[in-house]
Amino acid sequence: MARKHSKHGPYEDLTPDAAPPAPAVACWLCGRPTGATIVWHHPVPKSRGGRDVVPMHPICQQTLTANFTNSELQRHGMDVEGLLASPAVRKFVDWVANKDPDFTATLTKKQR
């Protein structure tokens, strides 16, 4: 019959001290450190052949999808500066710059 408890004590004692937390990854769009929730975004949509992923805040990804179509995102590719040239995206990035990494807000609907 198997033992109910380990003969040498609980398993928690066998693990080394907790590893230090991983450093925060910077958001691809706004450059702020990411919080608890990270969205792995395809700069070139998967439907357009995109394979690369970048870390983003959920609110930053929502802004991109609200302001650009998939074909526009495909044209910009990995070029963040091209996306930031859009007045709506630039205004958003300037606004969100001083917010907490886990900040969320309701965004406007797609303007198409």
Describe this structure in words.
The protein has 112 residues and is mainly alpha-helical. The protein is built from 4 helices and 2 strands. It has helices spanning 58-67, 70-76, 80-84, 87-96, and strands at residues 39-41, 54-56. It has a two-stranded antiparallel sheet with strand order 1-2.
Fold blueprint:
Elements: E1 39-41, E2 54-56, H1 58-67, H2 70-76, H3 80-84, H4 87-96
Rg from alpha-carbon coordinates:
21 Å
Strand order of the largest sheet: 1-2
Order of helices and strands: EEHHHH
Give the distance, in angstroms, between the N- and C-terminal Cα atoms.
67 Å
List segments where confidence is low: pLDDT < 50 over at least 5 consecutive residues: none
Give the gist of this structure.
The chain contains four helices and two strands.
List keywords for this structure.
mainly alpha, 112 residues, 29% helix, two-stranded antiparallel sheet
